[in-house]
Amino acid sequence: MSVYLYRWGKFAFRRKWIVITAWIAALLVIGGTGAALAKPFQDSFSMPGLPSERATEILDKHFPGASKDFDSNTVSGTYVIAAPDGETLTDPKNAAALQGFLADLGKLDIIDKNKPPMDPIAATKQIGKPAGIDCLEGNRADPNFAGVCANAPLNVLNKTNPDSVAIVKALYSIPKFSDIKPADQDAAYDVGKSARDAGLQVELTGNIEQKQAAGGASEMIGVGVALVVMIIAFGAIVAAFVPIITAIFGVGTAMAIVMFGTHWLTVPAFTPTLASMIGIALSIDYAMFIVSRYKHELAVSNSPEEAAGTAVGTAGSAVIFAGLTVIIALAGLSFVGVNFLTYMGVGGAITATMAVLVAVTLMPALLGAFGGTLFKPKLPLVAQHDPEDEHSVTNGIRFARFIGKAPALTLAAAVVLLGLLAAPAVNLQLGLPGGDSMPKDTTLYKAYDLQTKGFGEGSNGTLMVAVDLSKTPADQRDQALEELRGKLKSYPGMDYLTASQRSQDGEAALFTGVPKSGPNNKETKDLVEHARNAESDFNSRYGMEYGITGTTAIYTDVSQALLHKIIPYLSIVAGAAFLLLLLVFRSILVPLTAALGFLLSMAATFGATVLLFQEGTFGLFDPHPLVSFLPIMLIGLVFGLAMDYQVFLVTRMREEYVHGKSAKDAMISGYHHGARVVTSAAIIMISVFSAFMLDDNVVAKSMGFAMAAGVFFDAFIVRMILIPSLLALLGKWAWWMPKWLDRILPDIDVEGSKLTALKEASAPTEDKQPITVG
């Protein structure tokens, strides 16, 4: 591989304007095609095989339309309306204001006129009539009152301030979530203005109010930090802009391909943000690696063209395999079985692919185009400590020598530190973001808070128990339902449970349960688990089957499903990367320690994130379960980057070892050459990810922190302390491989041995040493 890349590098350097023109033409053609065929990005969630799907099937069969409340594509909203303190909504003045609000809501253009919003006061009166109970003015001490009136849209069960909070559900005529416009959101919220003016508090939740992330801030921060970091890394200003140019080509082409895919596929709205973030960082990282090697080769080669060819042949080979690890990690997200994770992973893999292609094809042409101006003007304070200068004493070589002197000490320190940070990870809890995770000044949070005060925290995630009675004898159905209701009510986590609502065909029934705690609380998840475990007993006795759905049940199902996918996903990705690194390093222990080191950095990352965001240590953030998708996305993104840093740093060490240095000296020399590049690349990625912490949303903050911490722990502790320490301790055994395995593995020659042999064979005869005969 190194020979082919070497030849291409020399050709691209020499025929620079042809290569650059071809890339410009490709960007314009692919970009124009993508823009012409692009359709809007759409958020659609599907995860087959969830236990809650059983309840949905029963609802769709026996209660048509009842499952629409849990369809993410149905555009809906829930208005939470509260009377002023000390008053009720049934007071004449407040009731009039509520009626006025309902009238305004019914006239709204985007309201589904076939299903107008219900009057909560009238609906509350109607609920109890079949059972002979007045839910508005009846005897609230009646033991049957709570069961009949628990589902009332007015908080009649509130013991301290009843009838003061109401819920009004609205369906909108907007076809799907991706069609919501800002004007629609404004109209949906502003419809409550007259009621607010009359003294009522009107807040809105639901997907109608969910705003799309603006994006762009993290990318701009990342580019700004990257420029500063590269100016320091190269000790020159012009060279710092070359990786930015490759990033523009790589990300621009990848985004066009992603937009091209929207013509046929439902691509999530977050895909371009994730893809551009990955593309910018990787394009800059790979370009930095090649430019750094080119700077070194300029000092030892006969010509800039030769230096460019050698840089692409050696560093370019490492870039290809580093990129492959990222592609494997991101494409492997499709294994999880969640459609939007699959598309985001594929989008990220496309940008990683383009980052590699741009680095090895366009970069040598840009090196030729800039010529002798590339490393000018130099920054004296930085340039005087050049890691590509064999005789320069940098901080990198000082630290490498320290590791070489006391590898056991540095190894133990790294493991102990990561172990201590990992300890809180045993308490990891996963959930999905709800209103309580929104910024406190948003109507989404205020609606959640208001509903909690009026109806209890569990009202934000009610349970729907759909019962299939088709196999239950008709004369046993009433008894079976009564026993089931008694069983569900007996669980300590259940606050209220409605009486059963029978379907028209009599073969199904529906209960609505209100847990005592919120959707993401462990107590609520335990309640769902206990209720589901009881089904086998009722099925054996009555032939009854039932399913549980609702926000709480779906949250639980998704969290458990994703948690169970982590180990298989990590095994597949790590296994594939191990085989790839086996080819790169031609060693058993180096790929193995690379994977084990990643597990340590991930454990430390989960521990630190749990400590700050789930447990609220130090009071920096309100405690919340971590979003269910965070572990999978974190592993996919950081694993690819971790293997990047492994390849960048350790390939240079292997190159020095193959070319004759001892294992310890090879580690020190490779560290000297690679530390600044890895440090620069890690700082850029940490800056990009940390920018997400500027978001008001606690979910975005936690994801930004976790990804930034993952890169920090893996790059600076695992790759730059733990791995070099192990290499120093293992000595030559670090590079050991069984001879039989060495023979059957293809020789990809990342260290450039074949390239060195080619140069020696093609050198002029007079340059070779004469052979003495006789």
SSE blueprint:
Layout (H helix, E strand, L loop, with lengths): L1 H13 L1 H22 L14 H11 L13 E7 L9 H16 L12 H8 L17 H5 L15 E7 L10 H9 L2 H5 L3 E5 L11 H18 L3 H24 L9 H30 L3 H28 L7 H32 L9 H4 L11 H11 L1 H16 L7 E2 L11 H13 L7 E6 L8 H14 L3 E4 L3 E2 L5 E8 L6 H12 L1 H8 L2 E5 L1 H35 L3 H26 L11 E2 L2 H29 L4 H28 L7 H33 L8 H6 L8 H10 L12
Parallel strand pairs: 4-10
Antiparallel strand pairs: 1-2, 1-3, 5-8, 5-9, 6-8, 7-8
Explain this structure.
This is MMPL family transporter. It is a single chain. The protein folds into four domains: 1-37 and 235-380, Multidrug efflux transporter AcrB transmembrane fold, CATH 1.20.1640; 75-209, no CATH class; 393-437 and 564-754, Multidrug efflux transporter AcrB transmembrane fold; 461-555, Alpha-Beta Plaits (2-Layer Sandwich). Helix content is 60%, strand content 6%. The chain has helices at residues 2-14, 16-37, 52-62, 92-107, 120-127, 145-149, 182-190, 193-197, 217-234, 238-261, 271-300, 304-331, 339-370, 380-383, 395-405, 407-422, 443-455, 477-490, 522-533, 535-542, 551-585, 589-614, 630-658, 663-690, 698-730, 739-744, 753-762, and strands spanning 76-82, 165-171, 201-205, 430-431, 463-468, 494-497, 501-502, 508-515, 545-549, 626-627. The strands form three sheets. Strands 5, 6, 7, 8 and 9 form a five-stranded antiparallel sheet that branches. Strands 2-1-3 form a three-stranded antiparallel sheet. Strand 7 (501-502) and strand 8 (508-515) form a beta hairpin. Helix 2 packs parallel to helix 10, helix 21 (551-585) runs antiparallel to helix 22 and helix 21 (551-585) runs parallel beside helix 23. The model is unreliable at 766-774 (pLDDT under 50).
